[in-house]
Amino acid sequence: FHYQHGVNILNDGTIALFNNGDTAIKTGFSKVVNFSQPSATDKEGKILWEYECNFDSSNVWKSARGGNVDELNNHNYLVCMGAITRVFEITKSKEIVWNAIAEQNAGDGHGWVQKPIYRAHYTSSLYTCYFTAQCNIDTLSRLSPAFKLKIYNEGTDGDSYSISVTTASKSFGEKNQSVIVEGGKSVTFGFAPLKNSVKAEKVEVVIMSNTNPDLKRKISLQWVVK
């Protein structure tokens, strides 16, 4: 291989990579390569499977940089050709399932032009990690000190969340809780203070996705003294 990119160890322990190839040599094509690792009985890795990326009439024979290979859940390969801008899915029997050219329109009058890609990966949806949350009440008091929190996992993948409830008087003990929610599901659970607040103060509820800690929701409640 030459100018290889996106080296990836697959589930069976073999190695896959995108072999860009030497662009100084005007023969051959970029390749998808899968090879074995050296073992105690076989000191050298061997090529197990490869595909020469010349499956259409684009006349583009080698990529200069980028690219990668992923194995999908159906055991096909998802291949990104880097600078050539092509992405395709191929079976182990070397049948092309689909292929696409990435383009962009910069709005500069040149219309749609090909856009080089560094790597491409599979994701189950555009919203694998997303959630909303709400409380059943806005104010707390000595007679009604508890509240319920409902978390809606609106993403397609399961996620876990860290929840903290804080007050100036530390009436809720300032302990974090964690909960796991399946994709498309919701959970509801209650919070009660360890002690009643003796003065009005803000109760802040923070929910954070453990998959993406930058994704947070903050809910402010008010403790009132009557």
Description:
By secondary structure, the chain is mostly beta strands. The protein has strands at 4-9, 15-19, 31-35, 47-52, 68-71, 77-80, 86-90, 96-101, 103-105, 112-114, 131-135, 139-140, 147-153, 159-166, 176-181, 186-191, 201-209, 216-223. A five-stranded mixed sheet has the order 12-18-17-14-15, with no helix packed on it. The protein is elongated and about 85 Å long.
SSE topology sketch:
Layout: E1 4-9, E2 15-19, E3 31-35, E4 47-52, E5 68-71, E6 77-80, E7 86-90, E8 96-101, E9 103-105, E10 112-114, E11 131-135, E12 139-140, E13 147-153, E14 159-166, E15 176-181, E16 186-191, E17 201-209, E18 216-223
How many helices in DSSP terms? 0
Mean pLDDT: 90
Strand order in the largest sheet: 12-18-17-14-15
**How do the SSEs run, as a string of H and E?**
EEEEEEEEEEEEEEEEEE
Distance between the termini: 76 Å
Structural class: mainly beta
Shape label = elongated
Helix content: under 10%
Looking at how many chains there are and whether they match, the oligomeric state comes to: single chain
Gyration radius over CA:
27 Å
State the major sheet. Answer: 5 strands, mixed
Which band does the percent of strand residues land in?
35-45%
- In total, how many beta strands? 18
Low confidence ranges: none
